[in-house]
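Input sequence (248 aa), recorded before submission:
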Amino acid sequence: MSRFQAEQLLLGCTAEGAVLLAQSAPRKTPAVNLRASIRAEPRADRPLAALCRALHDLAPEPPAATPAGAAGLAVTLDDGLVRSFIVTPPRGAQGLRELRASAAARFSALYGESAEHWLLAADWQAAAPFIACAVPRELHQQLEQLARTQGWHLTSVRPALVRVWNHVCAALPADGWLVVGFGNTLTLVYTRQGESAGVRTLRLSGTPSLAELATLLEQERLRNPEDSQTRARQSLCGPAGPTGCRQR
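Predicted structure, token format:
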């Protein structure tokens, strides 16, 4: 058996550019190395076009040694590149097709356009509200082309919210907040009685201080009225998992 293992490539994308990291997988301590970085200059009328062009020109440094098999590429998208929203399934909803139709209808109602040019992914549930994320098809197609050109295997394309949610979902409080930061975007998810009750994505001008984060969270609390009992048992969960949760 070869002593080399296929690389795991991690690509983080924002409207302003992308960073590609390579993570080796030795038996003891994985090493992470910068393989490439690109900058984009987004236009207000076409924010994705600059990023797609930059991804087309991405030219990573070759690995130090040829690994066995194709490298896997896991992509994390800034939540500002996608659209995240809450879907309340219709009563008696049955099957994934009906849930997808409900998500598409909710998308159209919120954003005033068809979901035709977006890929919808969600924590599909028929009995409770769930979070759905819409990824632009244009961007997903560019990522697929990048993987084909470089000979990589595209393993996942996920918004930062989804990647963190999958990691900490078991630790999420029944009544509280999950705060996810990636690039200059902050996403806040509000849970009430064990269900997703709200999601909001904010564009920040820079890295906020703890005091600024507290102010943002309090503003969101005011946008989501709650009774005194709910407020008393609320907690805040950060992206670090169970250790990132603390009582408010």
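Checked by second reader. The first strand starts at residue 8 and ends at 14.
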